[in-house]
């Protein structure tokens, strides 16, 4: 979703290069890990409701599968680019490694706008995606999942198409399926809840009482909504959220200095995360420009939308009060903005650690599918909490021991794990 000169792939590679350099990783391993191992670029023709046929451009990119099958979501977005998918596939590799689950990194995307497509058109697009890719994915090859603007319904259409092609039942080929159809309880909540599990640990480590904190969140899609819900349940106060308004084609920030009622706000939000402005006003929300979320005087900022949101030109708007940046989105902070955040001493929970709850629960979904035995929600959530807490502690301890920036500490752990896997396999 490149805007201006931003390129997510260059962003991901710059982060990798800097840490690979710090840990003295050999050049061959660097070369292997600096780019995806495999890429699939294809087109999907879809018969539209008006009788025309539209051709969509799509990708699936596998960055690395040394630690296990490639894993990662499929995004539907009009501004999708191949370089964004490359970056996201790389971040998936580090994400699975930091929570220490036996999966690699992959990502997919289709250049499309599901907000303007009928159910039938979306179903055809999902089925077309799998038809082009069925040979190159599989429970032991590459396992897709939901991401930006894709959901459980899309995953089930994709599963059905895969099973029709391959002949048999293969629930482990895709995660984020509906509960009762091979999905795991808690998967919908997992990414947002995972963000708050690590945020809770960060606040404990920083000796900050969560009940005395306030937060501002960018985005009000699946991840943001569940993060906001759990954070408020733990006693925090969300005073602002911003979201894209698909009718006005612009973003707004919804603010209530006394704290937003998240459940109520969710009830006036559509399935793509657009909040109804009139109803929000009735709820007592102040409506501000989309970028106002970043300048709120809060303790915690949670970017939970897209990449490239905190940049050189707005990072200075972050209030002096902000102590923690919990990156719920993938790649929200550009390298230039990251330097400023580092200098200011804001505590960062880096994206691939903060938002690893989704893929961790996807892994649990695979395990449950393999056993054909599904756990109670409490068990899923407890296992998710254990995994996220352990990953946070490992990163935090390294950050303390070696005086490393939190993002670098997370990268050191992940890169070392993946490098070890490629070396042990004899790939380099
Ligand atoms: N799309 C999510 C992510 O970026 C989840 C991926 C998955 O469950 O495989 O982490």
Our count of helices gives 14
Q: In which range does the helix fraction lie? A: 40-55%
- Range of strand content: 15-25%
What hetero molecules are in the model? glutamic acid
In short:
The protein is of the alpha/beta class and 428 residues long. It has helices at residues 8-22, 27-33, 82-98, 119-133, 152-166, 187-205, 222-233, 262-267, 277-282, 335-344, 351-354, 357-371, 377-401, 406-424, and strands spanning 38-47, 53-64, 70-77, 105-111, 142-146, 214-218, 237-245, 250-255, 286-289, 300-303, 324-326, 347-349.
Structural description of this entry:
The protein is an alpha/beta fold and 428 residues long. It folds into two domains: 34-171 and 409-428, 3-Layer(aba) Sandwich (Rossmann fold); 189-349, Rossmann fold (3-Layer(aba) Sandwich), CATH 3.40.50.720. It is built from 14 helices and twelve strands. It has helices at residues 8-22, 27-33, 82-98, 119-133, 152-166, 187-205, 222-233, 262-267, 277-282, 335-344, 351-354, 357-371, 377-401, 406-424; strands spanning 38-47, 53-64, 70-77, 105-111, 142-146, 214-218, 237-245, 250-255, 286-289, 300-303, 324-326, 347-349. A seven-stranded mixed β-sheet has the order 9-8-7-6-10-11-12. The protein has a five-stranded mixed β-sheet with strand order 1-2-4-3-5. Helix 1 (8-22) crosses helix 14. The chain is globular. It starts with 7 loop residues before the first helix and ends with a helix. The model has no long low-confidence stretch (mean pLDDT 97). Glutamic acid is lined by residues 71-73, 95, 145, 147, 175-176, 330, 355, 358-359, 362.
